[in-house]
DNA sequence: CGGAATCTTGAGGGAGCTCAACAGTAGTGG
DNA sequence: CCACTACTGTTGAGCTCCCTCAAGATTCCG
């Protein structure tokens, strides 16, 4: 079931975009800001566990996440699901659908989400008018690619425990950098079912694997989600570390 | 060991680029062609199984594959390797390294390869001067993303036989569309070790899995590579089909 | 209050792993 | 030119990690 936009009017002006103040996001020039501002059509408020984009659809819009957690996934004919990646504030959603003929994956909200809505048809003018923004889009796509590379390495070559530790460390990092997590809020809003479908494991074995991590004091499972207790411990266990903080673009 | 360019001079003029005549590649405008032509620094001839780009390096160049097969991979500290994707003519190589600080994966040649060499520092001017080409780059990155999504689904959720069938069908499709394969030449130049590291399986089990496919008459393993006998059979077995042929860009 | 998710745990089975050995081929150096 | 070594492909045996099945406890939600 797709959630329809509750509003067509811009609520948050791009000039007051809360993401601008986050460390790690690059600054816009005034003309870029003006362009993005009129590129933005409105906002989409998505309920928790609602579908934002669905595989096979030809969407007229693309989105940027303003707030909330979500995830991208694909399913096989018989229902087997693979979660591909998670989305947090600052991430683009639906760029593939805007460039290719149709969406090759679906997107669902983990929490209530707010998304900025952009017109697909105006995408090309973004490249024409503001080369810098076009460059940023390519950057974003390349970064998503790098993340998927890492996930592929993880699923293909890491053991269950290493995989889970990697995923938790990865989500913690993304949460912190996007402002969804902080020193005091370290709660990732996923079910073990989500984790199983991300790790390529059965739900039973995912449960037993997460228990091992909990027994080591690295995490705590509570309130339909996961509390990160020891990010460094997770990184050590998975032999993975996030890349250093750098100025990243967003639209 | 990195292969050094044997020549700095452009051998094949962009105007005579053999890829231009391939079905499925979009046509350039004359001014685009002029730009790409002077964007191109020269050609790199890589020997079979030589390393073209290495993880962690800060490359001053990016490349387009003109001829030959190659692959991208990552390795864990203890040597476990995961092949992420294969590269064929028309594919960009090293775009990540050009956009991010350094390469997050390595690239190796499966056969002798020819690559067009571009200057990393001039990449931004491509976006400034030719919005269409910038758009194409984003398209290429988004397509790579879609492929990685599919691989992730495969490794995470398909059985060994399905996975192998998917990979073979996928490579056959890419080979045909890039001109590396044809009705008469259906030979993919990989070892079973490459397949194992792509599928996330051990080499022994990969061998036994490929045997099952060979026993079904779908493939034939010979001369250090794989002969595709029945592409449709592979597609059916993996419940995967390539997307329809469409005008795709290249640089 | 009842049904549907979600989390948990135990038991048994199987897909895929490691170890091991061998054959065929390619590459290399004396 | 041949011997030697490295790589590749193949097959068997036993083991283990992870799967499925099953059942129960807890929480959420209508």
From TrEMBL, chains A, B:
CDD domains: CAP_ED. SUPFAM superfamilies: cAMP-binding domain-like, Winged helix' DNA-binding domain. It comes from the Bacteria. Residues 158-232 form the HTH crp-type domain. GO terms for molecular function: DNA binding. GO terms for biological process: regulation of DNA-templated transcription. It holds the Pfam family cNMP_binding. The keyword RNA-binding does not apply. Keywords: DNA-binding, Transcription, Transcription regulation. This is Crp/Fnr family transcriptional regulator. The lineage of its organism: Bacteria, Pseudomonadati, Pseudomonadota, Alphaproteobacteria, Hyphomicrobiales.
């Amino acid at each position: 079931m797709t959630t329809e936009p509750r509003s067509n009017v811009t609520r948050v002006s791009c000039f007051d975009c809360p993401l601008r103040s986050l460390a790690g996001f690059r600054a816009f020039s005034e003309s870029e800001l003006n362009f993005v501002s009129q590129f933005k059509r409105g906002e989409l408020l998505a309920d928790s566990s609602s579908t934002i984009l669905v595989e096979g659809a030809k969407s007229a819009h693309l989105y940027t996440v303003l707030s909330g957690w979500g995830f991208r996934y694909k399913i096989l004919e018989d229902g087997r699901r693979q979660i591909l990646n998670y989305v947090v504030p600052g991430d683009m959603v639906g760029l593939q659908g805007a460039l290719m003929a149709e969406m090759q994956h679906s997107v669902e909200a983990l929490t209530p989400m707010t998304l900025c809505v952009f017109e697909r048809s105006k995408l090309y003018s973004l490249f024409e008018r503001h080369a810098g923004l076009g460059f940023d889009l390519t950057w974003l796509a390349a970064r998503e690619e790098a993340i998927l590379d890492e996930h592929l390495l993880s699923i293909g070559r890491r053991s269950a425990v290493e995989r889970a530790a990697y995923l938790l460390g990865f989500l913690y990092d993304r949460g912190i950098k996007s402002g969804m997590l902080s020193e005091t809020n370290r709660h990732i809003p996923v079910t073990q079912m989500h984790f199983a479908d991300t790790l390529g494991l059965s739900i039973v074995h995912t449960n037993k694997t997460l228990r091992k991590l909990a027994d080591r004091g690295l995490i705590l499972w509570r309130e339909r989600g996961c509390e990160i207790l020891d990010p460094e411990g997770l990184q050590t266990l998975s032999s993975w570390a996030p890349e250093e903080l750098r100025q990243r673009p967003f639209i």
